[in-house]
Design a protein that fits this description.
Order of helices and strands: HEEHEEHE
Radius of gyration: 30 Å
Largest sheet: 3 strands, mixed
Number of strands: 5
Number of helices: 3
Helix content: 25-40%
Oligomer: single chain
Distance between the termini: 95 Å
Shape: elongated
Amino acid sequence: MRTILFLLVTSLLLAGCGIDGERISQSEDIDGTKFINNRYGGYYERDLDSERYNTNQNPNFIDLTENRPTYGDDQDKAREVINAVSGVRAGSIFINGNTIHATVYTTEKKDKKERDELKKKVNRKLARALPRYDYDVQLQNEN
């Protein structure tokens, strides 16, 4: 009984290691030393956008698609958010590490309290739109 059970388990394990029905055209060179695979031209010659799986599943992998997000996309989003706030205009915006440094120009003169409130408003809007960054907002009068 043990030998029959052992043979049955062994045959099931070996059956799981079989190849699928899809065969690839393969051959060797004349000497039989080099393997030739005629299926794909190579990794870089394939179109990665036509792959059947999503390449963005792991955040540690580099995104290989053409439309991958960049720092420029984050800068454009920050500029869009700042310009949506009334009474201000976005100036220079740059990213250094995890901090967005933004210069914001006000269209009218404001006293210190109003400037602080406006700076807090811009910070809140930026934090809601791009929560992964810290913000350094410099408020200046537009002349």
